[in-house]
């Protein structure tokens, strides 16, 4: 199934609001957003950041879902494997913070939609 079919099947909607920062992202040149997702009366909000090359353009739902799917992929393994796969230093507190944030994100996203279905979506 492609991303648009997944969005339709799960009745996913998104609204966004600008925000001044994202506690996970250190880059102050990025555009930061709070994304509010709903799917079949379930809700989820998250911080989302885009590079400054987007010049303030709001994120699209398909972009956010693709990023979420990518972010949660590596958290089923150990922290060491997560770091190895993404090039983080295992002694980095920042890497640990990102790993834990991705784990929480996976739980929240799993309450909103089927993670098995999302993993099979073609982006």
Flag low-confidence runs.
none
- Tell me the fraction of residues in β-strands, as a range: 15-25%
**Distance between the terminal alpha carbons, to the nearest Å?**
9 Å
Residue share in helix:
40-55%
Strand order of the largest sheet: 1-2-3
Helix count equals: 5
Radius of gyration: 15 Å
| Helix-and-strand structural type | alpha+beta
Instruction: Calculate the mean pLDDT score and round it.
Output: 93
> What would you call the quaternary organization?
single chain
- Written as H for each helix and E for each strand, in order along the chain, the element string is HEEEHHHH
Outline the biggest β-sheet.
3 strands, antiparallel
Task: State the domain count.
Answer: 1
Q: Say how many strands there are.
A: 3
What does it look like?
By secondary structure, the protein is of the alpha+beta class. The protein has one domain. Helix content is 43%, strand content 21%. A hairpin with a 2-residue loop joins strand 2 (31-39) and strand 3. The longest helix has 20 residues, at 93-112. It is globular.
What structural keywords apply?
alpha+beta, 123 residues, single chain, globular, 5 helices, 3-stranded antiparallel beta sheet, 43% helix
